[in-house]
C-alpha cells in the first residue's frame, strides 16, 4: 500500500531540493556586501510616507471575487465544450446536457447583471 506513495514522496523531495538548492547556493557562493544604498527604497524612488497597512476599497475585493467567479465559469465551460459532440450524439442526454448548461449560464448571467447594477464593475 505504501509503495504506491513512494513516487509522490520522491516528487516532493525533488521539488524541495530544486526550490531550496538555488537559494542555498546563492547564499554560499554569491558576494555579500551590504551597504545602506543597497537597502534603500528603489521601487518608487522615495521613502514611504504612509503606513503600509491601509485598508483597500471594497470594490477591489468585489472585482477580485467577480474575477474568480468568471474564472470558475470557464473551468466548467471548457470540459462541457470538449464533450459537446458526445452530449449531442446521445439522444437521452442531448436535451438534459444543453438545459443544464443553460441553467448554469443563466445563474452566472443573473450574478453579472446584479454586479453591474450595483456598480461593482465601474472603474471609478
Structure characterization notes:
By secondary structure, this protein is mainly alpha-helical. It has a domain at 58-117. It is 66% helix and 0% strand. The longest helix is centred in the C-terminal third of the chain and has 27 residues, at 91-117. The N and C termini lie far apart (58 Å). The mean pLDDT is 82.
Which features would summarize this protein structure in a list?
single chain, 124 residues, mainly alpha, 4 helices
The biggest sheet amounts to: none
Query: How would you sum up the global shape?
Result: flat
The percentage of residues in β strands lies in under 5%
Helix content: 55-70%
Multimer state: single chain
Mean pLDDT: 82
Number of strands: 0
Order of helices and strands: HHHH
Q: How many H/I helices?
A: 4
Distance between the termini: 58 Å
Q: In short, what is this structure?
A:
This protein has 124 residues and is mainly alpha-helical. The chain has helices at 6-29, 58-82, 84-89, 91-117. The longest helix has 27 residues, at 91-117.
Helices, strands, pairings?
Layout: H1 6-29, H2 58-82, H3 84-89, H4 91-117
Amino acid at each position: 500500500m505504501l509503495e504506491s506513495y513512494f513516487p509522490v514522496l520522491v516528487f516532493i523531495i525533488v521539488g524541495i531540493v530544486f526550490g531550496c538548492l538555488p537559494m542555498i547556493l546563492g547564499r554560499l557562493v554569491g558576494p555579500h556586501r551590504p551597504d545602506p544604498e543597497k537597502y534603500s527604497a528603489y521601487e518608487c524612488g522615495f521613502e514611504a510616507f504612509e503606513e503600509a497597512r491601509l485598508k483597500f476599497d471594497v470594490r477591489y475585493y468585489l472585482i477580485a471575487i467577480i474575477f474568480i467567479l468568471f474564472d470558475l465559469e470557464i473551468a466548467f465551460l471548457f470540459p462541457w465544450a470538449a464533450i459537446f459532440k458526445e452530449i449531442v450524439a446521445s439522444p437521452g442526454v442531448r436535451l438534459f446536457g444543453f438545459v443544464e448548461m443553460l441553467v448554469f449560464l443563466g445563474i452566472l448571467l443573473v450574478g453579472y447583471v446584479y454586479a453591474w447594477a450595483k456598480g461593482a464593475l465601474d472603474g471609478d
